[in-house]
Specification:
- This protein is mainly α.
- It has a single domain, classed as Ferritin, CATH 1.20.1260.
- About 70% of the residues lie in helices and about 0% in strands.
- The protein has 5 helices and no strands.
- Helix 2 packs antiparallel against helix 4, helix 3 packs antiparallel against helix 5 and helix 4 runs antiparallel to helix 5.
- It is rod-shaped.
- The protein starts with a helix and ends with a helix.
């Protein structure tokens, strides 16, 4: 009779030990990355600003390359976090005469995105994706800077 009581107690003890460990394991898992999600919005805004807008008479070298690099960064950030599902076309109409050129505004968004993914990363599997995102954003910033410099030359003789 004593032997039969030990088995249920042992099972109960193992169960309790397993359940007690669950909160500890949950803390090890990385949480959502709100900075990454906000960076995706900034990158999408920059991409939209770099697309050739109606009324633009000239396409500057670097714009298409910057868009490609933004796409790379978006893909890597999505892989490192959770995509917020925002649609590329879900943007307000841009007034090109408000607060500088669309290229300058795209640069602001690119710098903001880079800043937002620079926080501490607790998920070791996301480190390489974040590094690649930094590199892609830096290439997009460089290409957009070149396009903006050309725009300034053309528009501010």
């Amino acid at each position: 009779m004593r032997k039969t009581m030990k088995v249920p107690m042992l099972v109960t003890l193992l169960f309790l030990l397993t359940v007690a460990r669950l909160p500890l394991q949950a803390q090890v898992l990385p949480g959502q990355h709100p900075g990454y999600l906000r960076a995706l919005t900034d990158l999408r805004n920059a991409r939209w600003l770099l697309y050739h807008q109606a009324g633009d008479t000239k396409v500057y070298e670097g714009e298409d390359y910057a868009i490609q690099q933004i796409e790379v960064a978006i893909g890597d950030i999505k892989a490192a976090s959770i995509d917020d599902g925002k649609n590329l076309n879900d943007h307000p109409v841009v007034d090109l005469h408000d607060k500088g050129s669309r290229l300058a505004r795209a640069l602001d968004d690119l710098h903001a995105a880079r800043n937002k993914i620079s926080g501490e990363e607790d998920d070791p599997t996301a480190h390489d994706l974040r590094r690649r995102s930094f590199e892609a954003i830096d290439r997009a910033i460089s290409a957009t800077n070149k396009a903006h410099d050309a725009w300034l030359k053309d528009n501010h003789h």
